[in-house]
Amino acid sequence: MLETSAGLGQLMTIMIMAVALGLDAFSLGVGIGMKGIRLLHILKISLLIGLFHVLMPLLGMFMGYYVSSLLGQVAALVAGGLLVLLGGHMVLNSFKTSETRMVDHRSLLGMLLFSLSVSIDSFSVGVSLGMFESNRILTVLAFGICGGAMAVLGLLLGRRVSRNLGEYGEALGGAILLAFGLAFIF
């Protein structure tokens, strides 16, 4: 009986962490979705986020005890920096014509930067979990599924909102990402 309740407690903890990490992908997905994103790009970005939400905590778990004291602040700064760069880029791009834009969030580089920025905090969580006995497969699958699903929801919500915002959607989406990046840093 004691093992069953301990296992259930561990499962609940993993699910709460998965949802918390997925909320990041959801809220930032709203910002990206406001640019007026196609369903195919929503699928691609969400799959990449799900993949990163599996790989990053898995890598973190393997790092575990060795770097846990150094990683917390560094991970938040890197995630914040990436979001500030991506958000600032989106705001600047909203004022440019389509011929003068540099990196598009739908490009492979843009999708990778976004996926990494919303998944880097799961690396820190993975480091913490690496110090404890936990079911790695269950943990990374829960993180990946939750991250990908919540990214889809955020991107779809942002897409719906963007229809009402018109040309200002990209600037607002970039401002949201910029704000989250600054919140990560400070």
From TrEMBL:
It is a multi-pass membrane protein. GO terms for molecular function: manganese ion transmembrane transporter activity. It is found in: Cell membrane. The chain crosses the membrane at residues 12-33, 45-68, 74-95, 107-131, 137-156, 168-185. Probably functions as a manganese efflux pump. Belongs to the MntP (TC 9.B.29) family. This is Putative manganese efflux pump MntP. It comes from Paenibacillus rhizosphaerae.
